[in-house]
Amino acid sequence: MTLLEKIKKGKLDHVFAELYGKSADLPAQRKRYARITRPDTKWLFSTSGRTELAGNHTDHNHGFVLAASINLDTIAAVSPANDNTVTIASEGYDPVSISIDDLEVHPEEAGRTEALVRGIARNFSDRGFKIGGFTAYTTSSVLKGSGLSSSAAIEVLTATIFNHLFAQDSLSTTELAIIGQYAENVFFGKPCGLMDQIACANGGIVSIDFADPTKPKVRTVNFDFSDVTHGHTLVVVDTGGNHADLTDEYAAIPFDMKKVASLLGHRTLNQVGQSELMKNLPLLRTELKDDRALLRAIHFINETRRAKLMYSLLKKDDFTTYLQMVRESGSSSFEFLQNVYCSKDTTEQGLSLALALSSSFLKDSGAYRVHGGGFAGTIQVYVPTSILHNYIAFMEKLFGKGSCTVLTIRQKPTMCIAED
């Protein structure tokens, strides 16, 4: 029986239930996988998107992050190729192909999927693995430009395919994440951190300490926001903005933070303590003449401390204080990090509006914050499950039907889920 036949006959429903949770729409998942699966498909893969829970823009300065894999994912149906060509055919897009005989950086590919695939192939080759070609048909439920890391998901998915086909699954999820970051930094041309890739690759809720970015410390915590005890549902609200033209805004954040660290004799802000920063603020303000950079440094110090505390609060099952920390994280991003709207166009403030409406609706319950990179895209909201439908109806009046997406935490890591 081919994989396509197994999908259609429901033989993989138990796998889908494990991936997407007890409320999974199994018929919809069957149709989704069947759309990309061919009679000669040999492997099926799945990599989740991610949601950042705390540590907004701290990873690139070697801080501390709390994040989680989610029930939205990018999937691939993969067949072997007869030559050294890797082809990625993503649903809704033109196929892209690269030859693994040429694994040099192509400047003209910057910002394109070809660059990511070429960079991942190069890293596997540099690690000594004998790689080959394949064809992958993919589709994704990870909302693009949503802060749920659609780009990291495709990076980790591609690395997972290489790992399974050519490295006998010998690389860890953290190593796959590092390979994805390498491709994005060196080939794609975006100076991203590593949090997105680790959260997409790992499964569950993870804390990540980037003090040594070559060996990030990843710890897991088992927590269910939506169970009877905690009674909250995680929602992202898409305000309609897009991250596509905001690379300069994102790049300015690590640049500003490292600028402050450099004047204090350090490479990154994780090496700067709060007392050292505060003591030197007068000097820094005189030398930098950049108050925004100072505010972003203050955010980093406080957000890193807060993310560590939030991890311990989940471990102790102190959800009430955890929600308070979520609100503090959101306020810090808005006031100090300043990534809720783009300073070059203050007329576009969908995130600010969504936060204001959430505050008005939830009052003292739940919590809300900017989600992901910021400037456009989504906010993250913890909504008491008892008022979930009312909240969604309230927000969709302004942002449109389908703008609210309910998330659940996925426990499974990036993986090959079935093999012919």
Characteristics:
alpha+beta; 8-stranded mixed beta sheet; 4-stranded antiparallel beta sheet; globular
How would the blueprint of this fold be written?
Blueprint: H1 3-8, H2 13-20, H3 26-36, E1 43-54, E2 64-80, E3 85-90, E4 96-99, H4 113-126, E5 134-140, H5 150-166, H6 173-188, H7 195-202, E6 205-209, E7 217-221, E8 232-238, H8 247-263, H9 274-279, H10 281-288, H11 291-316, H12 319-337, H13 350-362, E9 367-370, E10 378-384, H14 388-399, E11 404-407, E12 415-419
Folded structure, characterized:
By secondary structure, the protein is of the alpha+beta class. The protein has helices at residues 3-8, 13-20, 26-36, 113-126, 150-166, 173-188, 195-202, 247-263, 274-279, 281-288, 291-316, 319-337, 350-362, 388-399, and strands at 43-54, 64-80, 85-90, 96-99, 134-140, 205-209, 217-221, 232-238, 367-370, 378-384, 404-407, 415-419. The protein has a domain at 3-51 and 70-203 and 411-419: Ribosomal Protein S5, domain 2 (2-Layer Sandwich). Helices cover 43% and strands 20% of the residues. The strands form two sheets. Strands 1, 2, 3, 4, 5, 6, 7 and 12 form an eight-stranded mixed beta sheet that branches. A hairpin with a 5-residue loop joins β3 and β4. α4 packs across α6, α5 (150-166) crosses α7 and α11 (291-316) packs antiparallel against α12. It starts with a helix and ends with a strand.
